[in-house]
Design brief:
mainly beta; Metal Binding Protein, Guanine Nucleotide Exchange Factor, Chain A; 1 helix; binds zinc ion
Length: 139
């Protein structure tokens, strides 16, 4: 069964066929800009499983924390941040765009070195100061 999502105004829709490779919470400074300040909750969709089903999103590319370019994909109409593209075999899809965000259980925290002191980081979850190894360690 496909997992579906899209932006707030409905101009962009996507679907993911298959399971997520994991879910995590990114605290990096770039993600703080893209979320408006909070941590960035993402699910990792393997790239072959991900497909845009409606609309033409906009893209913004700049170097990520580990050096490679990261392209942030968003709706040009309503501004909803949707997913990222880079030199990795999955797209980090932002939890807020999923039709049902409650299906996720973020397992790990990353880039905690850039988190402000008021970001929530649940005790007992693996937390990495920068990028974690991929695939993520089992919880
Ligand atoms: Zn939109
Ligand atoms: Zn980030």
């Amino acid at each position: 069964m496909a997992i579906e999502g899209g932006c707030l105004c409905g101009a962009i829709r996507y679907e993911i066929t298959g399971d997520f490779a994991g879910a995590g919470v990114c605290h990096c400074r770039s993600c703080q800009y893209m979320t408006g300040g909070g941590p960035n909750y993402v699910a990792l969709a393997p790239t072959p499983a991900f497909k845009v089903t409606k609309g033409q999103p906009k893209r913004y590319t700049r170097p990520g924390g580990s050096g490679g370019d990261i392209t942030r994909v968003f709706c040009g109409e309503c501004g909803t941040p949707l997913w990222s593209e880079g030199a990795f075999p999955f797209y980090p899809v932002k939890a807020g765009g999923l039709d049902d965000p409650s299906i996720l259980e973020p397992q790990i925290h990353l880039w905690t070195s850039e988190a402000p002191p008021w970001h929530p980081i649940e005790p007992g979850r693996p937390a990495f100061p920068e990028n974690p190894p991929f695939p993520p360690p089992a919880p």
